Structures are given as C-alpha cells and as structure tokens.
Amino acid sequence: MLQRTFSIIKPDATERNLEGAILDRIQKTGLRVVAMKKIRLTREQAEGFYHVHKERPFFGSLVEFMCSGPVVCSVLEGEDAVTKYRELMGATNPANAAEGTLRKDFAVNLEANSVHGSDAPETAAFEISYFFNALEMIG
Ligand code: ATP
Ligand code: MG
Fold it and tell me: Of the listed 71, 114, 116, 132, which one is catalytic?
C-alpha cells in the first residue's frame, strides 16, 4: 500500500553534516521525498511535536535537544512507508540497533539518536500536518 511517513534528521546529525548520508540511505530503500525543509524548532514547536511524551522523565531534555540545532523534516512516500522507514532507523537506543540501520551507524546515544520516524499511519498524519500543508507536498 502506497503510504506516507514523516522523518526528522535530528540536531546531532545535522551538526555532523550527515543530512546527505542519511537521505542517501533513505532513498536507497526506494522511499521518495515528497516534501522537505530545514528549520530550527522553537521550544513550543518541539513540545507540541513530542506531546505524547510530556509526562516522561526525559521530556525536558528531549525538547532541549530537539531545539539545540537545525533539523531536516521530510515526508517520505512508498510501499509500507511507515514500517519500511522504522526498519531502516533501527531501535531507539543505538546500543540495541541492528546492523545496517541508521541509528546503529549514526546515533550518538539514546537521546541523540539522529533520526525520527512516525510509528503508525495515524501518527504520520498528525506529524505531516504539523509541519507541512498540502501545497508543500508533491506527488
Ligand atoms: P522517535 O519518536 O524520535 O522516532 P522512537 O519512536 O524510537 O523515536 P520514542 O519512545 O518515541 O522512540 O522516544 C522519542 C525520543 O525520545 C527518542 O527517539 C529519543 O530521542 C528520546 N528518548 C526516548 N527514551 C529516552 C530515554 N529513556 N532517555 C532519553 N531520551 C529518550
Ligand atoms: Mg516515537
């Protein structure tokens, strides 16, 4: 099923100039970029994006991290895009991430784990609309 998912290349990765390397790996899976922008999140924007985690002990630190530098937001389209991209990303903690995954190869630690990807089609719909309007998506 043709599907869309939402991706963020996080501040630890943009800091190390890894946008191109990560996008190359994304595109090699066959997923297509249908929207993309580089922005710096405000605290409010980061809090809103990760609102599902607001009761978690790591929430404050996560928000701080996500605002600490630029991020590259994109909408990816392809067959089973949500699952396909989560598989490419690997486990949240890079110590547990499988060989060949983005987090295994690029993540610094559990928080600075280089990439975000939607965890379900419903989450993807919310996250895409949080950052992009219909006119900004092609395809
Ligand atoms: P993401 O939503 O960013 O794709 P995920 O779905 O793999 O990651 P979540 O449980 O949604 O993992 O956590 C969101 C993010 O919060 C993680 O990617 C990581 O940056 C950070 N995080 C998660 N758990 C911890 C923790 N125990 N300590 C510090 N940071 C954490
Ligand atoms: Mg998540």
Answer: 116
The question of whether 51 is a catalytic residue gets the answer no
Q: What is the rounded CA–CA span in Å between residue 13 and residue 1? A: 30
17, with CB counted inside 10 A (0-12, 13-18, 19+), is exposed
> How far apart are the C-alpha atoms of 24 and 19, rounded to whole Å?
8
* Structure tokens, 98: 């499988």
Please tell me the residue having the least CA distance from ligand 1 atom 21.
111
Give helix 81-89 / helix 121-131 axis angle, nearest 10°: 90
Query: Per the structure block, which two tokens stand in for 139?
Result: 């395809």
User: How confident is the model over 59-70, as pLDDT tens digits?
Assistant: 999 999 999 999
CA of 103 to the centre of ligand 2 (A): 14
Query: CA 34 to CA 77: how far, in whole Å?
Result: 7
Distance 24 CA to ligand 1 centre (A): 23
Look up the pTM and report it: 0.98
